Amino acid sequence: MGCPQCYPTGVPSSLHEALVELFRNRPALAAELVAGLRDVPLPDFAEARVEEANLTDLKPAEYRADLVIGLRSREAPVYGFVVEVQLNRDASKQWAWPAYGTNLRARLRCPAMVLVIAPDPATAKWAAQPIETGQPGCPFVPLVIGPKSVPEVRDRERASRAPELAVLSVLAHGHEEDAVEIAIAAVHASAGLDEDRARLYYDLILMALNEGARKALEKLMTSGNYEYQSDFARKYFSEGRDEGKAEGKAEGKAEGKAEGKAEALFKILARRGIAVTDEQSARILACRDLPTLDRWLDLAFCVASAQEMIGSSS
What we know:
The protein has about 325 residues and is α/β, with parallel strands linked by helices. It has three domains: about 5-150, no CATH class; about 175-245, no CATH class; about 255-310. About 50% of the residues lie in helices and about 10% in strands. It contains 14 helices and five strands. Strands 1-2-3-4-5 form a five-stranded mixed sheet, sandwiched between helices. It starts with 14 loop residues before the first helix and ends with a helix.
């Protein structure tokens, strides 16, 4: 999910709290992530809900997890998750995590798992190491969700069914080549939510993207080539674009040339009646290689589709 150093320390309030909020808003997200992994069977359940996060047993020592989620049938708990967001290594967690799992299992009287969400690949690798408990043959191994374990959510319908999973997908893959396509799906899914939740998710989406993908997404949202799903989405991205203009000066001659060529491409394709999808628009806007843009301009006059033009560079 990218390295923690890549994220501003104050956005939204902290990356740690923002990730916890994704699971708090959608408790079923824990089960959705685990269900995508092999060899981790989950029972059928009627609902997923947030439980009390204090996992202290009868002893004085206190253990408080980031979030506790219970899967329940109509009659009783059937599975428990201790969700821990881990941004960096913390040796103390190797003592706490086994206690978390054991205490939740005892409280709910059903199987329980410690699920660690680790945005940093190195931290994910560390967290996945077996923890020796002293019980012969029974080391404790938390289940770790690192960037590679999070699915790439590109389909808008799927994203709309699970907005939190779509946002988590951007956090996991926001520095990859096709990050804008994943971000568009997450923006689309977040547009219909209440404003506070939508603002949090938009902040997370922009925060997770690399600079080129972020600029491409902002330009797409304000270019008139994207059909907004809500007035708030339009206002949010317009404000962000205005702030970006106020904070910086001109991005340089090469940047300006690239933008001009991109605009020319859109005009040529529009006049020829060739449709351009959001994903294709995002790729055009993200391109800063002038020779590639020049080649696309030449092809724009004769291709039968935008994909035929863009595919020429692959």
